[in-house]
């Protein structure tokens, strides 16, 4: 009896609770549909998105159905907590159809429609962005990001500032994936505007959103046009729709590779017409470009480039190689971007971007079978370089040139307004006879040259550094050969004139040849200029002005034996490095009928040991002769 009473009371209580829940639920449905729980729902969506949300206009919510729907007007979505204060998006009208979670599927978004939308997208140099769904510092690994099954976003205004990838965009973007057969309708995203100050158009075509799932990749294709260049390719998202993980292949072509900066935000060098292809892999803030193949003019480059953050800076890891690289295929002239006449200077005035060195860190490797520099060809080049907080170091650069080798070390400090540069260049066994010559036949001067350049200067081009250089420049040849007629002409005598007029091509041995210069503020001042042959001791003095590349040298030939009808006068070497000229200094000329020729052999052992090996200064006092240099002291 008592048991039955207890049971009846429990049943009555349960019925009352159920009735109350039914009444409460009915009331909640009515209240929600009437908009009375507006604040609660907005706070719920804000917590799910991890950022503040405001609805300044009308708000409707139809929650209790198989496909709940929310409609809101004048929606303002603010930046997430990991970004500075600001607005991510403003939407005139937002309509969203939700999918409730089930036993075999998670919750999601069936449809999303945005009208009158404006997006203010920002990413800082460390990779933090206001469009990220979760705090990057928490390193969440959400493999089931929401999938929007249908999307409509006509003519949205988008303003993007991406400090990590150096991109700025302002324009209109439209997206659509809605019709009666949405399961078969691909996603289309189209945009146009100004990207990095240049007009751009782009479009993306993706798989149907209705068929996307978390167990298979999402595939898409893309095309972009800007400044005459076209970039296109295919890609996939291994985890839809996590855009921090992406794989793609791409091709690009256009009139100048530097224009790709306006599409990808990476500063490249000017070229002529080019083609570029490769693969892209993105994992978070780390991007790798692999299987790169670039061709422009008669040059080619292959390799891999990785880009990722290093503190508050970007770091590049570059590994490139080339079969043939012509420097004439690079620069503004190759791209047709300058109408100025070609520089008369021999030393390059091409400018290195100091901002590029200051703004990025990098490790670089480069190898090439052949690099053409003007009329010279370097072979089997290899170089290693680093950029660390505005300091570029190349150590070493190795190459083969004219049968010899080059070993160069360079340091460029771009932190000052005018970069400071240190150069240490060593040349070993360069065969002078292999220099390009206009006339056929044996060379006028042959032999293995050793040289050393140790200078410091300032500037952003080879010419600027040379024009401010301080240090030493040394070169020497042991056991070479010189055209007899040229040696004799330096003495300005009858025998030399005869050899020249008869075009005599007989060579004479060169015991040693030495040129030691001291660089002072861009002026190369000759300390020792000596060429010692069996019949003639040739000496010189003067300067080379590297700012104008003007030559101001005097060469004297001192005979070692009897000469008839000789003019005691120096030969002047003038003009420029690119176009030297020679002539006799007539004002100093003195005719000697008989010159007994008193010059003696130079002390080649001492001369050859000075300057080149250690790059030390060798001055006039360090160039001893076994006797006087001769009798023509004017």
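-> sequence recovered:
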């Amino acid at each position: 009896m008592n048991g039955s009473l207890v049971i009846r009371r429990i049943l009555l209580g349960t019925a009352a609770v159920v009735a109350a829940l039914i009444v409460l639920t009915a009331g909640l449905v009515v209240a929600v549909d009437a908009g009375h729980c507006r604040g609660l729902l907005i706070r719920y969506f804000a917590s799910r998105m991890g950022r503040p949300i405001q609805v300044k206009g009308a708000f409707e919510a139809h929650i209790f159905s198989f496909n709940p729907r929310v409609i809101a007007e004048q929606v303002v979505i603010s930046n997430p907590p990991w970004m500075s204060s600001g607005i991510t998006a403003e939407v005139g009208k937002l309509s969203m159809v939700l999918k409730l979670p089930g036993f075999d599927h998670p919750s999601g978004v069936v449809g999303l429609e945005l009208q009158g939308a404006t997006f203010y997208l920002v990413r800082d140099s460390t990779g933090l962005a206001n469009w990220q769904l979760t705090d990057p510092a928490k390193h969440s690994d959400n493999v089931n990001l929401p999938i929007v099954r249908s999307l409509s976003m006509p003519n949205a205004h988008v303003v993007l500032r991406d400090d990590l990838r150096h991109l700025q965009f302002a324009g209109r973007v439209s997206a659509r994936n809605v019709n009666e057969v949405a399961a078969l309708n691909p996603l289309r995203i189209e945009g146009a505007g100004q990207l990095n100050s240049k007009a751009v158009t782009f479009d993306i075509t993706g798989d149907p959103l209705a068929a996307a799932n978390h167990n298979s990749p999402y595939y898409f294709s893309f095309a972009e046009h800007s400044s005459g260049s076209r970039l296109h390719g295919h890609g996939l998202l291994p985890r839809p729709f996590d855009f921090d993980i992406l794989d793609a292949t791409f091709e690009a072509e256009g009139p100048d590779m530097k224009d790709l900066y306006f599409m990808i935000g990476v500063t490249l060098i000017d070229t002529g017409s080019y083609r570029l292809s490769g693969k892209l892999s993105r994992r978070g803030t780390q991007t790798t470009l692999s299987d790169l193949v670039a061709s422009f003019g008669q040059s080619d480059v292959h390799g891999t480039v990785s880009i990722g953050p290093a503190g508050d800076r970007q770091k590049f890891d570059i590994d490139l190689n080339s079969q043939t690289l012509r420097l004439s295929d690079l620069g503004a002239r190759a791209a047709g971007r300058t109408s100025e006449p070609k520089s008369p200077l021999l030393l390059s005035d091409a400018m290195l971007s100091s901002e590029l060195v200051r703004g990025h860190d990098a490790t670089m490797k480069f190898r090439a079978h052949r690099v053409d520099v003007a009329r010279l060809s370097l072979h089997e080049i290899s170089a290693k370089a680093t950029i660390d907080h505005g300091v570029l170091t190349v150590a070493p650069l190795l190459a083969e040139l004219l049968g010899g080798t080059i070993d160069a070390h360079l340091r460029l400090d771009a932190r000052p307004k005018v970069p400071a540069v240190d150069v240490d260049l060593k040349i070993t066994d360069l065969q002078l006879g292999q220099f390009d010559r206009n006339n056929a036949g044996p060379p006028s001067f042959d032999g293995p040259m050793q040289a050393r350049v140790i200078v410091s200067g300032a500037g952003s081009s080879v010419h600027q550094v040379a024009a401010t250089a301080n240090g030493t420049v040394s070169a020497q040849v042991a056991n070479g050969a010189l055209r007899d007629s040229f040696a004799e002409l330096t003495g300005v005598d009858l025998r030399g004139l005869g050899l020249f007029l008869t075009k005599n091509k007989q060579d004479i041995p060169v015991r040693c040849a030495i040129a030691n210069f001291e660089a002072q503020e861009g002026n190369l001042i000759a300390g020792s200029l000596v060429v010692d042959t069996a019949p003639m001791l040739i000496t010189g003095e003067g300067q080379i002005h590297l700012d104008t590349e003007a030559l101001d040298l005097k060469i004297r030939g001192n005979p070692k034996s009897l000469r008839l009808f000789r003019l005691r006068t120096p030969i002047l070497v003038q003009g420029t490095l690119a176009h030297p000229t020679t002539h006799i200094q007539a004002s100093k000329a003195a005719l000697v009928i008989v010159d007994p020729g008193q010059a003696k052999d130079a002390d080649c052992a001492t001369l050859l040991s000075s300057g080149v090996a250690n790059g030390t200064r060798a001055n006039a006092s360090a160039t001893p002769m076994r006797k006087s240099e001769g009798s023509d002291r004017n």
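The two ends are 146 Å apart (CA to CA).
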